[in-house]
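Archive entry. Fields below.
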Amino acid sequence: MDYAVRLRHVTKTFGKVVANHDVSMDIRKGEILALLGENGSGKTTLMNMIAGIYYPDAGEILVNGKTAEIRSPKDAYDLGIGMIHQHFKLIDVFTAVENIALGLEKNEKFDLKAIEARVKEICEKYHFELDFQQKVYEMSVSQKQTLEIVKVLYRGADILILDEPTAVLTPQETERLFNVIRNMKADNKSVIIITHKLHEVLSISDRVAILRKGEYVDEIDTAEATEASLTEMMVGRKVELNIGRSEPVNPVRRLSVRNLTVYNLEDVKVLNDVSFDAYGGEILGIAGISGNGQKELLEAVAGLQPAAAGSSIEFFERGSENVAMELVGKSPRKIRNAGVHLAFVPEDRLGMGLVGSMGMTGNMLLKTYGKGHSLFTDVKAPRVMAERVKDELEVVTPSLSTPVSRLSGGNVQKVLVGREISEAPTVLMTAYAVRGLDINTSYTIYNLLDEEKRNGVAVIYVGEDLDVLIDLCDRILVLCGGRVNGIVDARSTTKEEVGMLMTNLRKEGTAREQ
Amino acid sequence: MSSNHSVHREPAVRIVKRDTVTMGKKIFVRAAAILLALVVDAFFIFFVTGLNPLSVYRVMFDGTFMTPIRFSWALRDLATLLCIGIALAPAFRMRFWNVGAEGQVLVGGLVTALVMVRCGQSLPTPLLFLVMFVTSIAAGAVWGMIPSFFKAFWNTNETLFTLMMNYVATSIVACMTNIMRGQASSLGKLNMSNQAGWFPQFGITFLPDILNQRYTINILSVILLMFGMFLYMKYSKQGYEIAVVGESENTARYAGINVRKVTIRTMLISGAICGFAGFLIVAGRDQTISTASAGGQGFTAIIVAWLAKFNTFYMALISFLLVFLSRGASEIASAYSLNDFAASIIEGIILFFILGSEFFINYRMIFRGSGKEVQA
Amino acid sequence: MNSSLIAWILRAIPFGTIIMFGSMGEIITEKSGNLNLGVPGIMYLGGFAGFASSYFYEKLSPNPKGWVCVLLALFCAVAASMLGGLIFSFLTITLRANQNVTGLALTTFGMGVANFFGVFILNGASYTAAPLAYASFSKKMPVLSSSFGTVSEILFSYGFLVYAAIIMAVALHFVLNKSRVGLNLRAVGENPGTADAAGINVTRYKYLATCIGAGISGIGGLYYVLDYNQGIWATTGQIEALGWLAVALVIFTTWKPLNAIWGAYLFGMLYWLYQFLPGVLGIHISSYMTDLVQMVPYVVTIVVLVVVSFRKKKENQPPASLGLSYFREDR
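PREDICTED_STRUCTURE:
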């Protein structure tokens, strides 16, 4: 068999976190390999090692049969390997051709015309559509992606790695991309495509390799695979986590979202007609491949994302269950001033939830500093609160004034969660609350959330680990492509069911069950 | 060059951000920087003038400390520089590059002078001072607010905008002084006849001679400001908002802070204090106005505010160092018949060293082959 | 043609040349993402080094030659200014000091050095001159400057640096937009991360752009002293004002060297506007208004800055990473 790249026992760790453990896999010449796995399963890290972004701690990489040392993206280029990252590396004010010409070898003559001619050849060969003189900032996401692929091909890549290329594309654009990929295969190039979308895996790939929690699980010829078998391989067998889950007591409706639609800055519909209710005394899990609208959903509720006309987010505060408070159109300040007790633990802890340069005390003030009519902030209360959070959640910090950016990830999250729950919220929203945390801290967080639930708080938990979602939550809402693709009972559902809902958008109409 | 990919070399030096720096280390690095700068300056003095650097430094010391009157001049200059530095602190904390202090001071001073001339004869003294005070801070505030308005709504580059505003202010002051001087060759002190609008010069009698100042009002008001701004930045709600906006706009939005409002409000304050500095300069120091009234202090104060990292007490220290240098240099100039510009050179070299030394406070260097390979 | 209009142009073009050099240097520097507010200081260094070298050459050489004088002055001016640029580069690129603050300190330093040593040369006099240098730098073109009457007067009656500035602006335009170096340089100023990933040595580009830029800015100072100011050195603050005007011009040109040509002359016209208002435009203003008219270039620059930020046209924005330090985090 003719292999383009072979990985042998590759291991990569970041600090204490093992990203890839003892992975061995092969990429054949002239095949399209789909690399499948959940978020955080180590797909991108593995590919980054082939592309020269990371260097493996152990193991070796063979390219075209020879051991290769890939220390930089340039080394990878020299070996004919090119990777198209999710975040494009392009200069906005440059034209397509200028971006391709950037950083090319010095010994060839600088002639944009000649480069353009060669680019044109490539485009014709693989049927790319590219306007060579268009500036990058005028391009759509799909055009930028095309440019990245052409750039890589121009540099002579025979092995292309695409990191979730379809995440940002419309179905038509995806189809066009797949045609190009098939053309490349016909030209005996190897293509690795990282993805979550099962139907795409089935339609484009020759073979599927599956990673789970950093380890290589198995591989399968696409011809023999079905969506069900792939889902099972991807999510693995259900692992019991022993998360203490209490029974919901007397659930009261706290949040009622109806027809919520949100457009992002590029005017792309990121949330499409989302409707659901959240109840006090239960944990509502939100599952989905990341980037399917979870962030926008929480931010829209918190007043940080403008909702499109026709959307409605009604809030029912404790003690006034019959009064619906409309949150759409209100700023975070207005929401708070209206007496709404809404707590929000955002995904970007230091970039949004906390002020990195301030200590715990300073951060306790973030949402309440404006209280009262004094010109000055309250000095005593936040210190008491910081003291309490530190003790109750066992935050490890040299002092209450040590900038929180210097604390470890787990302690940062404890500070943030501690502040949010100390305000006695009616609704508590958390986004990826345990991402990057060790097992112990994760369980601390699970227990805290369950305790909040027992206190009658409506908890919304956006998560990525299906085992956790199924064991922690009461109901799970699955987002797919910005739509609600189903709401399931966490006690009776299976990983496969949730996995299928995450990866396969159902037809219109069936997605509206409550 | 690096196409030979089978050879891997760890870079000779890796630079890593420090997590924590002890106070002692900070002081040590800065003191070392100043000391090194003084050594370089000593070489400079020796090679250029052939004088003994130590005796030159000795003379320099006299520039500030030899007589009470000199010390009072030094404190007066310190008050001016510190006042502008204090004005810049909240803007810089917000990461708003206000390099327009020079202009904001000038318009404040100009308005003060205009009020002195127009109302000097008619208004009773307390009212006159009140009008001077209010109009000068209003003028400075407006001058500072304009760039912030455009920054807040259209993200117009504030560094370049505020910089340009300096020269607009200079031109206006030049024009107005020409009008005010009329046929005279220069403007001279305003209200020479009745001294209306002049700060009275007095000392506090029970203090020892050296502290017996002529510019008591300037100094006292800047000391008040120093404490006031320290409290404002550290304990007030607005100060808190400024810190959050400066750290991350996303966090500010999350906390419900209106970023535009804070941007404009902070620049109103920054400009107002600059305008107040203009008031102190005109009413308390010069009793006149010219394009040189701010004398580059608006730029020097940027360095002061930046180096002190928003702490007004550090600002006082750094301002004192700079004032000491420039006073000392003019002393050298007259003692050895050199010229005042020696001050700029010495000051420049010291600033270069202090700026460079920040690197050693914030980063750690790891040299090749030290430790890391062993661990791996 | 109106004779005062001609006189106006004859003032504006040399004036514009000073700031054209200053701003071309700063354009190169800013294209690499470095905002160097030390331009006035650098122009002082260039002006003084150029003057001092030719002054001593004229004084010490028994038989001074014009072309030696020119080369020597140019060499010293460029070398001194590049040294200023090197200080800035080392502090901001290697030691990651804040660019604004370092630039301002460099302005203080450059002004101090030039005036301090200038006083030694002056030696008590209020000014000194380097007449041969002036004669050589301001030498008009032999035939063209006299054969065509008014046209000759307007177009060909200047020293060679006026034409060198235009040629340099055109050359700079081509280097920036049509060469590999220019492409890479612009990439560094726009997005150093992407440039780095493409295999461009970001640090080297920043150093070189800043030092070469400083060298070119320094020629502006040299031209001011040895041609515009007739080879006379006097202690003044004039160069500082010119330096800031050069920074303003960079904004006015929206970072495009070709715009610097007409922009510089326009600034020159505006600067001298007050003198020619009555003669050319028939507007009579009081003498005290002259200073007010001098703010017009700055106001125009502010208007350009604001309009550019309104329109958000990408091509006219400052380089995206202007003023920011770049360091690749350890991988």
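CURATOR_NOTE: Residues 508-514 of chain A have pLDDT under 50 and may be disordered.
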